[in-house]
Amino acid sequence: MTRKLVKFVILFDNTNVLYFPGQFLSGRVIVELNDDTPALGLHFHIVGEGIVKLRNRSQEKSYERENYIDFRMRLLGEPGQPPVLLSPGIHSFPFKLGLPLGLPSTFLGKHGWIQYYCKTALREPNGLTHKNQQVFIVTNPIDLNLEPSVLTQPFRCDMEHKFGISCLNSGSVFCRVILDHGGYVPGETILISALVRNRSKIHIKSTKASLRETIQYMIKNKVEYTETRELSSVRRGKIQSGENDEWKNEELYIPPLPPTNLRGCHIISIQYDVYFIIEPKGLEKEVKIQLPILMATYPFQDEENEPRTLATHYPTTLPIFRPWLENK
Length: 328
What we know:
Shape: elongated
CATH architecture of the largest domain: Sandwich
Strand content: over 45%
Number of helices: 0
CATH topology of the largest domain: Immunoglobulin-like
Number of domains: 2
Distance between the termini: 50 Å
Radius of gyration: 27 Å
Number of strands: 20
């Protein structure tokens, strides 16, 4: 028997399928037939959703979901009406929808994702239903120039840590860490200055600055799983008892990263931090200073509207999947 349906696809007007919140999502559903075909309806569904799927140690599943878009329309046919006879050839059914503002960016992780897609279904009177779907990508940019001005200022943190226990005090270490500002974009360099004063009897093996990404998956408003990855680091050598060490604009490179504005999502969060770590010798635990930073899409600009960092290597493609999460 000759197959009636030759082609059934969703085509977006934007061929790179990348959209921003507030833009129009438009395109066509193409139906190509080689024979007369009655159709009860052509249904179209636009979906945006966040999903978290986890298993605990007992292999019990836990699941959380939230919706961002749930829009349905008929591109052909009306409820309760007789079938529409489609002639042989190519039929084009346009669609157009304004995407809501505030959508979280597309994200694919090991235990959850935020995804946007269109589904379509062509129903025949004989009960046969043809289906297809097409994913599109949403990126919600963060412009550092529209964020609080405090992010343009140096970010400073001071800390003094005592080694040993109360009855056997081994002295303390003082640490001051300064980042050149509090917001960055992928491809930029974080400039780190620091002063470490070793006032203790303990020798310090090394000091280290580390850029880390933390992904948290939540179920029922509770963090159920956390993934942390070191993205880059820079290290300096030992500090003897009674000595000091000073960092002056040491460079910590930010590698190309997917846009990660998940504002509007309540079940997945991403945080970027610079950790300054002091590693003492012996049995003493390492000392950590955590400095949260904002990872944005568009860099700071100066008064002449020129980016402050001209050597920004922002990825031209959208690597929404993090392959390193599969290498564990």
